[in-house]
Amino acid sequence: LTTVREIFRDREKYLNKEIQVGGWVRSNRDSKAFGFLVLHDGTFFETLQIVYHDTMANFQELTKINVGAAVIVKGTLVPTPEAKQPFEIQAEEISIEGASTPDYPLQKKRHSLEYMRTITHLRPRTNTFQAVFRVRSLIAYAIHKFFQERDFVYVHTPLITGSDCEGAGEMFQVTTLDLNNPPKNPDGSIDYSKDFFGKETNLTVSGQLNGETFAQAFRNIYTFGPTFRAENSNTTRHAAEFWMIEPEIAFADLKDDMILAESMLKYVINYVLEHAPEEMNFFNSFVDKGLIERLKHVANSDFGHVTYTEAIEILEKHNDKFEYKVSWGVDLQTEHERYLTEEVFKKPVFVTDYPKEIKAFYMKLNDDEKTVAAMDCLVPGIGEIIGGSQREDSYEKLLARMNELGLKEEDYGFYLDLRKYGSTRHAGFGLGFERCVMYLTGMGNIRDVLPFPRTVGTCEL
Ligand code: 4AD
Ligand code: MG
Questions:
Q1: Cα–Cα distance between 38 and 9 in angstroms, integer?
Q2: How many CB atoms lie within 10 A of CB 49?
Q3: β-pairing, 241-250 with 220-228?
Q4: How far is the CA of 380 from the centre of ligand 2 (A)?
Q5: pLDDT tens-digit profile of 278-315?
Q6: Which residue of 88, 255, 434, 435 could cross-link 49, Cys pair, CB 3.0 to 4.6 Å?
Q7: Is the ipTM of this complex over 0.95?
Q8: What's the 402 CA to ligand 2 centre distance in angstroms?
Q9: With contact defined as beta carbons under 8 Å apart, do 102 and 70 qualify?
Q10: Which residues are 374's β-sheet partners?
């Protein structure tokens, strides 16, 4: 079968030739002597019009083809200079590969995104989700390409782990114990030594700690895999299962980390604009007007920089606008992040040097001993898209912080070892992959950029 992508990309090769295509019917209408099928074959954003005539033996059958059916068409590709589409196929033969019933849930009208979430198995067939998931695939490829071109080693970090990287306690437990009748310790608590791994385990919230062990061997590494968080946040930007990209760089500090993050985002923007023009035009017209201009501007200008302390000073002046009032020490909420990036900077901005109390144990303590060398990258429309930091590389300071927070030395012995045997200055960050897809497509809900979203209360298919 010739693909619609080949036809559109290499049209001279196929015009006025006999070809065969296969695809799914988007619409079917007929008048007495002829009919039109609109076909989408999944390889390209555009559809192809098929003209069939009553000279064909199965004409009556063809007029009854329902939307959603799969067909194979043999015919000649002819130019149609006066029509919207540059060409169509004059069919000689059409065979029905798989019929469809009249109750097909995707009829030729605009369906709401909410409705589409109830049919996650069929929504990839629509224009919106064709565009979303092809762009998602391209972004993943572009991210790999960016890091591989710079000789970063791709590390596969485990999904089942015994540690809690972020220390937020938002983990899904993994157990084979019968929790209705679990083995008990003398004090009544569950005896996890009888569990599969001989201890309590969970799905990973981040591959960073494992990633750091490889950075202390390869220098520059990245992870790219699923992460899990049992956050009870029912928002448009939180999922229970999401993908994260976590580079880690040795002999590097927070500045190097931000330079890497900024060049990665710009690279990915340029890649997608170049390689998915049809999809990006669709988003630009139907999802987020002005998206392309904005992304081009972001790719060609510097990101903003502000310290947490400066950001608080700015935000405090606008406390009347916020549901949650800010003051030094509070964590920034989405409303504050969006205000900073949308109203104050009007572009992506790095917020740095957060109070140590609101950040994870592994971040490097600054000289003021109150803040840590952290950075969050905020973007308009979403807020935080990247969270990163320079890591505490002093054995003594890390141990002291772990003790303060009550982290057990036996669980993090490997992590302390990295500070004992040839410790280096090092830094890294985590890019939330779905938030990146949202940013590049203009889609407003994380549920619509995940093929099969898992959020509070929802785990279908
Ligand atoms: O800021 P976070 O929690 O950072 C880490 O996990 C670090 N270990 C990263 C590192 O330094 N290697 O998460 C990183 C990013 C966030 O900025 C956000 O984009 C995304 O992951 N993220 C989520 N995306 C979707 N749903 C959720 N529940 C998310 N939680 C975090
Ligand atoms: Mg964060």
A1: 19
A2: 17
A3: antiparallel
A4: 16
A5: 999 999 999 999 999 999 999 999 999 999 999 999 99
A6: 88
A7: yes
A8: 19
A9: no
A10: 389
What are the helix (H) ranges across 78-202? 113-117, 127-149
CA-to-CA distance for 61 and 189, rounded, in angstroms? 68
At 370, which amino acid appears? Answer: K
Instruction: With beta carbons less than 8 A apart as the criterion, state whether 210 and 176 touch.
Output: no
Q: How far is the CA of 148 from the centre of ligand 2 (A)?
A: 25
**Is the beta carbon of 433 within 6 A of some atom in ligand 1?**
no
For residue 94, with 0-12 CB atoms within 10 Å meaning exposed, 13-18 middle and 19 or more buried, which class applies? buried
Per-residue pLDDT, averaged over 342-347, amounts to 96
| CA atoms within 13 A of residue 61's CA, in its CB half-sphere | 12
Tokens of 167: 């220390």
Residue 194: how many other CB atoms lie within 10 Å = 13
Cα 184 to Cα 283: distance, rounded to the nearest angstrom: 55
Are 22 and 73 a contacting pair, CB within 8 Å? yes
Distant-in-sequence, close-in-space partners of 111: CB < 8 Å, separation ≥ 6: 126
Terminal Cα distance for the chain, rounded: 31
Query: pLDDT of 156-209, one tens digit each?
Result: 999 999 988 888 889 999 999 999 999 999 999 999 999 999 999 999 999 999
pLDDT tens digit sequence for 227-256: 999 998 899 999 999 999 999 999 999 999
Q: Of all atoms in ligand 1, which is nearest to the CA of residue 168?
A: 3
143 CB near ligand 1 (under 6 Å): no
Q: Could you give the CA distance from residue 68 to residue 39 in angstroms, rounded to a whole number?
A: 9
User: In this structure, which amino acid lies at residue 256?
Assistant: D
DSSP annotation of 86 reads: S
Q: Is 206 in the pocket of ligand 1 (CB under 6 A)?
A: yes
Span from the CA of 450 to the centroid of ligand 2 (angstroms): 20
Ligand 2 centroid to 417 CA: how many Å?
25
Please tell me the number of the ligand nearest to residue 231's CA: 1
Residue nearest to atom 30 of ligand 1 (CA): 238
Ligand 2 center–CA 378 separation, angstroms: 10
Whose alpha carbon is nearest atom 21 of ligand 1?
432
Torsion of CA 428, 430, 433, 435, to 10 degrees: -120
